[in-house]
Amino acid sequence: MSKGAHGNIYAGYRGIAEIGGEKLRFSDANISAKQSIEAPDMVMGDWDRDVYAYGKVTVDGSINGPLNQQMLVDGNIMEWACSRADTDLSNCGGNLSKDIILYYRCGEKRTFKKCYPNSFGISVTAGDVAQFTMDVIGAAETSADIEWSDADAGDFSFQTPSKLLTWDQFSISVVKGITDAVADSDVPSDIDKENNIRFQSFSLDCANNAEAAWGIGMNTDENLLYPFDVVAGLRHISGSLTAFGTPKFEGHKSFDDYCADGVHTMTIAVASSCADAPVSSSIVLKVRFHRLETTLNTGIIQSTIGFTGVTHQAGFPWDPS
Question: Are 268 and 202 in contact (CB under 8 A)?
Answer without folding.
Answer: yes
